[in-house]
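Troubleshooting log. The previous run stalled partway through. Resubmitting the same two chains, unchanged.
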Amino acid sequence: MAAKLKIATVSLAGCFGCHMSVLDIDERLLPLLELVEFDRSPLTDIKHCGPCDIGLIEGGVCNAENVHVLREFRANCKVLIALGACAINGGLPAQRNHLKLDEMLTQIYSTGTGLAAGSSIPDDPELPLLLDKVHAIHEVVKIDYFLPGCPPSADAIWSFLNDLIAGKPPALGHELLHYD
Amino acid sequence: MSFDLETSTLPTETLRRVAIEPVSRVEGHGKVTLLLDENNQVHQVRLHIVEFRGFERFIEGRPYWEVPVMVQRLCGICPVSHHLAASKALDMVVGAKQITPTAEKMRRLMHYGQMLQSHALHFFHLSSPDLLFGFDSEVGRRNIVGVAASHPAIAKQGILLRKFGQEIIRLTSGKRVHGTGSVPGGVNRALTGGERITLQADANQMVEWSRDAVKIIRELHQQNPALYDQFGHFRSSFMGLVAPSGALDFYHGGLRARAADGSVMFDHFDYQGYNSLIVEEVKPWTYMKFPYLRSLGPENGWYRVGPLARVQNCDFIPTPLAELERRQFVEYAGAEPMHASLGYHWARMIEMLCAAETVQELLQDDDLEGTDLIVTGERQREGVGVIEAPRGTLIHHYQVGDDDLITMANLIVSTTHNNQAMNAAVRSVARQYLDGQVLTEGLLNHIEVAIRAYDPCLSCATHALGQMPLDVVLIDATGREVDRKVRG
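Second attempt completed without errors. Output:
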């Protein structure tokens, strides 16, 4: 039997809904585990992405840490996929792009509703640097495939992965290609 | 306000920094930092939540009817919580003081289906490897794949329990993740007879498997009380919604809090006035705020929410099998409420059983096929919606202008209420297991186990899912790397 393909997954500035949709393949997960092995993923203990066949990226890029992780995935994954709306175009978190970051932070941490007296914006060196805008991941690294949807359906993810695992060019039928 | 071990009394440059980073790598990124002296005595421990998204700010200016669909993008694990909390707040805005029976039952079915899938996900996919294999078991096995290999029946039941909950969400909201079924004033769809029959066919099996899951965690407690009762133990008060009867209710009720000794601090508090009850403190080292009860102040006013709070806060659970389990839980705890962090897992599975039984009962109700879906009344400018999300009390508060655009949004999400509690749990474990010790991979997982007991949804307040990768570097006072353990 051929060696299992390795898959790595991560959520950057996403909501984890795309990972939920991966799990929504339900009991098909068990036969999938016969064919693939999970490397870095929220389901495993692996901290850094090793050499992998397939990388799935959920979420856009909103801080410096997201950029580092995305580059690590690109350096290690033969095929890198933007999974869902946020990875493809920033998605809902990119709604903050028309606002000024410092004004937003001031309102949420200093002048907003229900805050204790003296509250101010967190500024510890332990907190990673925020980017002033949320970016799509293809603005940072080359992406091989874009799988749309918020989230893409489990059937779309299943069909896409099966094509890749079988060594075929992935193709989604009309009923699997949606953007909501 | 600073707690024991929150901020070192010694100058930080004389101490070694140990970073557990990241404790989460999903959209909510967190880490733990510790400061140790030359004898490995712990002087400072902090759980940092390092993500910022700004939902409260960019919701402003959007039409109010978009909000229940927008805000669920806070979290793909429990989108229904945000969908419904926003809908409840906006019910107030559209003047729907009482929604129709069909609307309320559809929302309840959606919510209890979510409780089932979220609790199953957390227990089976994420936590069961720690609990079944041990906190310091082999890294490569400590995941759902390892569980599937050694306990295939348990893994499959977990997958199918989650599937059932997700199918309820799909049929009540239109999609498994980020549906559209609930709207201000009610819902936009009811179930068909065929959909009810499909769900009814599996409901009994889900109750049985949920009972089995409670049994697994109850027996783990009973077999190893020294570990389960003491790990990450600290005393606190508890808060959550209860029904007017005192029953456990995830969808609606008034706020009740119990002090650490179990006595009731306040009861049936109308959550429209949450602002007079709760204040949030900001600390410079984390993006997650620290809520506390205004009357008690930051030192004594913090509390825990979620399964451990709810199961002990209510007077009874209104479904028979879960109520039997609750009584066993209370009896086990003894004179005081259970304060051990790992008690969350046990309480969570009792809630999953309650959710499965409630779904089974709701599916018998013909109102689910009703046609009266939406009501409106006199338009208001403001509304607060509160719901018991899988992880605890979730508060949404909106003000809406005459042009129907949101002018103010304030959200206090479940995991945020547990911010101080998770910090206390990590400090407790550091004292119990870390003080004076050399780092090991198993030790790192102890810290993670303590955080995970709270099922932190760092997608809501930032969130953690799955085995958190850990990288701990021990650096001496001169900056030299002494020890490094990477788990992952």
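Takeaways: Residues 462-469 of chain B have pLDDT under 50 and may be disordered. The two ends of chain B are 36 Å apart (CA to CA).
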